[in-house]
Amino acid sequence: MPDASGKSTVRTLNAGVIGFGWMGRLHANGYRQLSWRYPELGASVRLAMVADAAESNREVAREQGFAKVVSDYRELLADPDIDVVSIGLPSFLHREVALATAAAGKPFWIEKPMGLSAEQSREITQAASAAGVITGVGFNYRNQPAVARARELIRAGALGRISSARVWLLADYASSPEGAYTWRFSADAGPGVISDLLSHGVDLVHYLLGRIDSLTAQSGIFIAERPLPLGEGAGQWATEVSDEVKTVENEDYAAVLARTAKGAMVTLECSRVAVGPRAEYVVEVYGSEGSLRWNFQHPMDLQVIRRGERGYALQMCAPGDGEFGRYQPGPGLQLSFDDAKTVEAKNFIQSVLTGRQLVPSAADAWQAAEVSDAIVRSNANRSWEEVPTVTGPVTYND
Ligand SMILES: NC(=O)c1ccc[n+]([C@@H]2O[C@H](COP(=O)([O-])OP(=O)(O)OC[C@H]3O[C@@H](n4cnc5c(N)ncnc54)[C@H](O)[C@@H]3O)[C@@H](O)[C@H]2O)c1
Question: Whose CA is nearest to atom 17 of ligand 1?
Answer without folding.
Answer: 235
